[in-house]
What we know:
Chain A is an alpha/beta fold.
Amino acid sequence: MEAKKILEKVRNGEISVEAAEKFFRQKPFDDLGFAKLDTHRKIRTGFGEVVFCSGKKDEHLQQIFRKLAEEEGNVLGTRASREQYELIRALCPDAVYDSLSRLVKIIRKPVELRGSVAVCTAGTADIPVAEEAAQTAEFFGSKVNRVYDVGVSGLHRLLASLDPIQEANCVIAVAGMEGALPSVLGGLVSNPVIAVPTSIGYGASLQGISALLTMLNSCANGIAVVNIDNGYGAGYMATQINRLACGKER
Amino acid sequence: MEAKKILEKVRNGEISVEAAEKFFRQKPFDDLGFAKLDTHRKIRTGFGEVVFCSGKKDEHLQQIFRKLAEEEGNVLGTRASREQYELIRALCPDAVYDSLSRLVKIIRKPVELRGSVAVCTAGTADIPVAEEAAQTAEFFGSKVNRVYDVGVSGLHRLLASLDPIQEANCVIAVAGMEGALPSVLGGLVSNPVIAVPTSIGYGASLQGISALLTMLNSCANGIAVVNIDNGYGAGYMATQINRLACGKER
Amino acid sequence: MEAKKILEKVRNGEISVEAAEKFFRQKPFDDLGFAKLDTHRKIRTGFGEVVFCSGKKDEHLQQIFRKLAEEEGNVLGTRASREQYELIRALCPDAVYDSLSRLVKIIRKPVELRGSVAVCTAGTADIPVAEEAAQTAEFFGSKVNRVYDVGVSGLHRLLASLDPIQEANCVIAVAGMEGALPSVLGGLVSNPVIAVPTSIGYGASLQGISALLTMLNSCANGIAVVNIDNGYGAGYMATQINRLACGKER
Amino acid sequence: MEAKKILEKVRNGEISVEAAEKFFRQKPFDDLGFAKLDTHRKIRTGFGEVVFCSGKKDEHLQQIFRKLAEEEGNVLGTRASREQYELIRALCPDAVYDSLSRLVKIIRKPVELRGSVAVCTAGTADIPVAEEAAQTAEFFGSKVNRVYDVGVSGLHRLLASLDPIQEANCVIAVAGMEGALPSVLGGLVSNPVIAVPTSIGYGASLQGISALLTMLNSCANGIAVVNIDNGYGAGYMATQINRLACGKER
Amino acid sequence: MEAKKILEKVRNGEISVEAAEKFFRQKPFDDLGFAKLDTHRKIRTGFGEVVFCSGKKDEHLQQIFRKLAEEEGNVLGTRASREQYELIRALCPDAVYDSLSRLVKIIRKPVELRGSVAVCTAGTADIPVAEEAAQTAEFFGSKVNRVYDVGVSGLHRLLASLDPIQEANCVIAVAGMEGALPSVLGGLVSNPVIAVPTSIGYGASLQGISALLTMLNSCANGIAVVNIDNGYGAGYMATQINRLACGKER
Amino acid sequence: MEAKKILEKVRNGEISVEAAEKFFRQKPFDDLGFAKLDTHRKIRTGFGEVVFCSGKKDEHLQQIFRKLAEEEGNVLGTRASREQYELIRALCPDAVYDSLSRLVKIIRKPVELRGSVAVCTAGTADIPVAEEAAQTAEFFGSKVNRVYDVGVSGLHRLLASLDPIQEANCVIAVAGMEGALPSVLGGLVSNPVIAVPTSIGYGASLQGISALLTMLNSCANGIAVVNIDNGYGAGYMATQINRLACGKER
Amino acid sequence: MEAKKILEKVRNGEISVEAAEKFFRQKPFDDLGFAKLDTHRKIRTGFGEVVFCSGKKDEHLQQIFRKLAEEEGNVLGTRASREQYELIRALCPDAVYDSLSRLVKIIRKPVELRGSVAVCTAGTADIPVAEEAAQTAEFFGSKVNRVYDVGVSGLHRLLASLDPIQEANCVIAVAGMEGALPSVLGGLVSNPVIAVPTSIGYGASLQGISALLTMLNSCANGIAVVNIDNGYGAGYMATQINRLACGKER
Amino acid sequence: MEAKKILEKVRNGEISVEAAEKFFRQKPFDDLGFAKLDTHRKIRTGFGEVVFCSGKKDEHLQQIFRKLAEEEGNVLGTRASREQYELIRALCPDAVYDSLSRLVKIIRKPVELRGSVAVCTAGTADIPVAEEAAQTAEFFGSKVNRVYDVGVSGLHRLLASLDPIQEANCVIAVAGMEGALPSVLGGLVSNPVIAVPTSIGYGASLQGISALLTMLNSCANGIAVVNIDNGYGAGYMATQINRLACGKER
């Protein structure tokens, strides 16, 4: 924090008490009334603010995207419906939509892809969540390798695809139903595995709770878990790790 | 059922109405007052009655073992404490106890071991449940191969031990924590896999519920599940399958 | 595994190192990009790959069916909607659909039915799941007897239908609500019972969790449980057992 | 309520306003400070107050028993430890204890047993709860028939014992593990069945939750359920029903 | 059972062995193929079979109603949609429908109402379940008093309506949300209370699980519980109790 | 209670016994048959009766609103759909509707706003529940400050908005997902915090159960919790507290 | 916050930049290494810091009590065992212990009791939690009325004790098992009710979860809930409310 | 993998087919009979095998420690009781024990500490789990900063300790009860946060499930979660991340 610098300026009369207090209080966000946009977030964390679209009111969504596009250039929206995308595109014609991952993207400053993140799925039904993870990681500058449909009940498929997984700085393992993929991967790689349970399954899968519990109880080392279907969260954290491995200069 | 034969004897006057009714009503068990021993069970199913010792009153336990030993020769007791074993041994000096599986056995008629059942565990802590399964299967005449500590987070250990597993008529897969072993085995063998979740683990393992859910949600084929820590149930069903494979003549 | 044979051929110069490595790595599946079809599965396990249709993308579903029909002749699809069936039929005109069980079948090589599997239900609402089980078993070559609406609250109906149940190599017991049927059957038969909880019921049935717990806690012997509504899994395992009983030559 | 009579007496000057208000407010219990004994309960409901001993402080327990024994003659205490019984006996030497059901009883006025209640258990481990039910019913004047160890996995034992069950005004069905006994009984009798789940079992029995769910979901008619291990509640309600059937003159 | 009489007839040659065996086996139901109608149920229990309509196939529903109407005269169907009612009315024009309780009734033999059952609700949203209970009890011959909207958060409403409740042979207490009504009623009446949790509520009401737990844990005496929203089951059991109180001659 | 006064009037002959009894029994509500309106509630508690609209039958809803509007002047309806509002407006043209909070209001007597309640949300998706709370508090006479989108993952936004929160007599903290806002607020204010979990979130948020548990387990002091999405309940209790702080003269 | 004042002093040279920064950073707690005592808490909130004793290491507990007693005079410790009390008394001989509530108190500055809080329990087993609440409220200066053993299954006991409850500024309602007391109280009083579920009960009470759900789902107004057995939290919040009602000058 | 190299040696006759097959099969572990020690683990992953002591048999534990100490030099054991430590020390006199974290360590090769990991706790009761994390990270070569007792209900304590947290390559956030610490930290740092729920709490904390859910639902970015009380897992993964940040040369 720069508290000390501000205080020194107050003492030196460079800025007024009121300005200093305002600095402490109001600086780091834009207040739209209904929302408080964290426009200094990128400076603090190296990641711009991302919009969780689901459930947002139409006019709010539009204002948020326009504001962020103006201030940040690149904007990422998650869990967007096609209807929401059309609303956004009306204001930001360069917005693009991926119906599989339900991501909306505005890319005005090209992003260089670095390092290596592997995104794996157990089955084909896990691919939408995996794509949310993969494209989030790419949005933030990670190079991504996709290895899909390598669930543990057909082990030969996984063993035949190990190279990109073992070479990644971070592995994202996406699985529903019994959710065993991260445990097997955890024993085969030396870098961290981020496990993403999906709500794929039926009956006792309990909408992903079963896979979530499996992953939390893994006896393999180097595994941590995010919320059910939270591909975005996995892609974000994988990028944090990938950046650390690449030397962080972003 | 032999209902028809009895009815013909009634018509022919070979047995009285009262005897027939008694036959229909009272035959197939010994009523000890507090319990009704199913001494005709072996004839009906090929398996003698087994005693679940835990929670039985001392004198009841003793009477049940003595009665069954007299009538059946071989007796199996599950979930027995050492104290209970001492009580049983006081009346049946040839009873033996295995403290790992907590089984009490009386073997007065030797049992020939046939066919092949594989019993696998994910970790070393699962061995007590696995031994309950293995020794139950042996008590009922199955030849058993033990393959222990082959959990999925160290896949090379499992792959190095596949032969006895792939050759078995039935595989018992015992695992706690994330419980992923049956899913991996299900993809590697062609015969049925009986999955036994164990209460091994901590935190979100929920005393075995996590492993149970994993196994129920397995996307591998040919897997069915028994109750948490129910090694006995797995050993029993594996024997049923093994006998069918051996031609059932027992 | 045939690892040894390959290695001997390498030593003898019959195949190159590169070919051998490729064999170890890439052989046992067809990679469609989005999915990895296990076309060697039938050789390994005696069962061809089955398609879980629910949630598959339209074009993926079509490609998978066409590929499997070409390579295997007979194809089974589970949990298919009528819309999905129409898509499949557009490419494979000999596909047939059963709206009760939601199975799609292509049968180009006739299947001989052998042995005996009994499929029982507690109520009439359990029949769709039972049909998934029964037709799966028939697809893989098991002769099936159906005994429906014999729930335990009307015991005389069950007792009047015991013969085909007691004679089966394996019994599938399908029940929702309180799920007590497998426990009663387990006491009446000598061969294995596969219990299938269904999501039939309301209130405290918790979408099948109640029936599932009942079945896991059964004090009858010889019962194992599959996931809620998983008729397919039960039919598959029943066939494994039935084949073992028939002598396995398939 | 006798509100009207009191009000008439107020108008007639037979009792004062203060007395009437006191009547409305303070009559129907003895306030011991820490507890409010409902000594008018027997007049209102035909059942005296019963003491739930577990967790009561020693001196409180003693005072409550002495007070009730003085005022009511007969006293019933449930869930009493032997230590608690010794404390009670120090003040009430005619108190008796049943270690199986954990009931303490003082009987100073003999109770005539009438009508018929059947108490059934699935296994021998359910007997303690069944005895709590049976002896509670007897304490309140019901004639009881005990039918123990007739669980549904050995149906012939149940069918051989039907007479006393079918003749009872009310059946209490006590079962742990899968808890299927009430469903089967519900289909065989015409009078009400009170189902008592017990905490007997392990693993997925969840301390009786599994049996409780089974019973709530029973598709048999005429079944209602009390709390896990609540033999007392079942015995109480069975007596209410039995009294109605006997003509209620008690 | 009349087993003995049949056996005597066999001995006397009055009926053949085959007829006797058939009697034991096939008598008590009509097998429609997809369902086994229990047409002897009324003789055994005094209650005809009732049809749970929800989920039945259209043609099955029609056949079942026609068959039961022919054989029994009066028929009750529960959980029927208006569409199902129209199907039934096409075959049985005298069928009537109550959209609140979702019951379909055919009454060809008038029913005399006897005794007294009180049906209470906590709120107005619980009325549909209460009507299912009340009309079921009336269908089976019980006189019913309805006391609605007397939840415990407005105690004066309940206290002002006590007379019909305290005079009933059996009280049905229907409540969602916190489900406290049965506890309060249990302390105010001397006859049994059947508690019916409803799925009314939101958030932590968990679709009725909260009310169900409340009722199971009631510290009032004389309360037993049926499944969530199971008005039918409560009306059935209340009738059993009411009949016992009326002297059972029906 | 005024019991004493009534009784004195009875003694003095000022009112008859019948009138007194009627007073005790029937006074405090209007019985519409299907519902019992608590029209004396405002006298007893200072708050008029509020209508929970969801699930009410159309004609019932109309009658209730008309009756309450006539007797109380101001009426509040919660969880109303727009369709329900149109029905109400047909009879009460001065009814107004807020689609965000789903409240219907009739205000015929102006309400003076006093004291201070702060309503905070963690995110923008929590605003509908917050508005239900805020407008309920306003309906009952509390002055409200709204502080929205100050979730704990962007702490600077919360710290910049502390003044109205710290000055309030009561704080309502509305949050879904992890529900951490009340804990942080609890450490920053000296007056009570009412925590409202919302059903906002996905996966392991379990429709608000996760946020509910978080709030119940808060280690901050001065926090109590209402049901998931229960903005109304929070606004009601905040007003109770605010009135106490203002001196209660309302 | 006094941020502005500090900043003005910095500008005026009254304090140095370093001092100001230190003020912002280190002022409000004493860092003992293993714990950070919030010794300015009383100034901020009017309540001193309270020690949750359970699980604290012996030497830590002693240091914390000594430090707080020196700085604050009065100290309250919750969930203390007798052993922990002995340790504390060794350093602070004026500490007193209440074994029922498990509170340790040091009172060096007398506390004046003001206002009115009512603490009610459903049963006698709830008294320990109620005493934790009552004595906490007294420690912080609230006058408390105790009304114990007034559960809803014996309504006359509650109605006879209404006066102190209806006059209180805040009511604490403590109940286990079905937890219905707060709902009934909520309908009888005009001030807030803080509901405290207790872990009293068995079986489906689920260690207090059942009572907790009941309270959260209460349809009475003016009820909020704290964690299971959290008497301390209820006493704290009741005092906040009571102080607001008394005019807050403390 | 070095598969290719081995295959080339086979072709060149440098090693025999049998040796190659043995290499593929048996190399990477030491089979002790009851356990299969993964002694090549360090080569594959950079982390030696760690012993989960809890539940291990005494003689097994001793053998495993002796073997690993001989082969690896440094050994870490988790969840060890003091009794187990004494057994280990009997064979390995240089073993040391930390009773807070329950870790046993043998350090024969000094470890250089690099990079930076911050370990934070919400309360003092979370310290044992935090120490397991911190000492695990140190065992594997990470430099650790401990920041304890900075829970969110006293935000000033956290804000005063931000520097070491914001500078770490990875933050471990350990919290029980409401588990809100990771959410607040996630908004304040730019590197990954590993959240560790602890079983600290009571009532609705559900032995850590509440904290676990909070952390999974965090709306802050860059958070992933491990199992309840799994300090070891967090320390392991933090080291993986820290090594990547340091350039991985270990």
